[in-house]
Amino acid sequence: MKLSRLLYPLYEVRLRRELSGARQPKHIAIMADGNRRWAREAGHADVSHGHRAGAKKIGELVQWSADTEVEVITVYLLSTENLRREPAELQLLFGIIGDVVDELSSEDYTCRVRLVGHLDLLPLKVADRLRQSAEPTLAREGITVNIAVGYGGRQEIVDAVRELIKEEVEAGTAPAELADKITADSLATHLYTSGQPDPDLVIRTSGEQRLSGFLLWQAAYSEIWFTDTYWPAFRKVDFLRALREYSKRSRRFGK
User: Fold this and answer.
1) Could you read off the pLDDT of 29-69 as tens digits, one per residue?
2) Residue 223 and residue 202 in contact, taking contact as beta carbons nearer than 8 Å
3) Domain range for residue 79?
4) Which residues contact 146 (CB under 8 A, 6 or more apart)?
5) Is 173 annotated among the ligand-binding residues?
């Protein structure tokens, strides 16, 4: 353990040197997975320890990113499927996510916080708390942090189609012409992440190797990096390793 503590700073310096001048992602998306498993394997009977440790890691990630070329971070915290969990765990998660947004919205950070998801699926008090904390940060300069809560990739596309059709109907578009109005570009303007670049790199922790509905539209050509490390145990060197791996890949965008 002592040897590891001595070697990690040296390894971090090496990774930074390798990243110097290399191509880096502008938008990274994080599937912060493995909180509950980390807690159980650490001997905690109460999985809330994992959720809290994972929440703390988000602020650390934002600070790590400040020293890179990353401009947008999207963190997957609560999916539409997660809303089916036991009420007690959901209430815990709502409180922790609220704390995360409060922290990122504080004066300790200079990031813009955007809420990405179908917030109407959340309890009203929870959604209001998130909005009230995030809204004042939108005028800031700095990294944009998207908090994906109540998020589902399929739901996002459905919502985008509905919004586009509603907009066209209100503009007086005839029913027979609606189909022609639905294009990749027009739908993209109604996604939760409208106005932002698609993620260059998707990182998923905990060993799972699937997108699980995360940014289905936006991640079509993203590079994906998987690690067995649980999210609460994710370190700065793991983050830098992901950036290094990205820098070595050749992005073809389907060509």
Assistant:
1) 999 999 999 999 999 888 899 999 999 999 999 999 998 99
2) yes
3) 24-151+192-248
4) 72, 73, 74, 75, 114, 115, 116, 192, 193, 196
5) no
Whether residue 80 is annotated as binding a ligand: the answer is yes
Counting the structural domains of the chain, the total is 1
Task: Please list the active-site residues.
Answer: 33, 82
Q: Is residue 210 part of a domain?
A: yes
Rounded CA Rg of the chain:
19
Residue 237 token pair: 């060197």
Distance CA(169)–CA(239), nearest Å, equals 46
Instruction: Please report whether residue 159 resides in a domain.
Output: no
Q: 37: annotated binding-site residue?
A: yes
What global pTM score does this model have? 0.93
Q: What's the confidence (pLDDT) of residue 156?
A: 96
10 Å Cβ neighbour count for 240?
20
d(CA 144, CA 72): 5
Q: Which of 9-23, 94-108, 116-130 has the lowest mean pLDDT?
A: 9-23
Measure the CA–CA gap between 26 and 206, rounded to whole angstroms: 23
Q: Is 223 part of any domain?
A: yes
The amino acid present at 103, given as its one-letter code, is E
Cα torsion for 125, 128, 133, 138, to the nearest 10°? Answer: 160
3-state SS class at 7: helix
Contact 192, 215 (CB under 8 A): no
Report whether 249 belongs to an annotated binding site. Answer: no
Q: For 217-227, b where at least 16 C-beta lie within 10 A, e where not — what string?
A: bbbeebbbbbb
Q: Report the distance separating Cα 31 and Cα 33, nearest Å.
A: 6
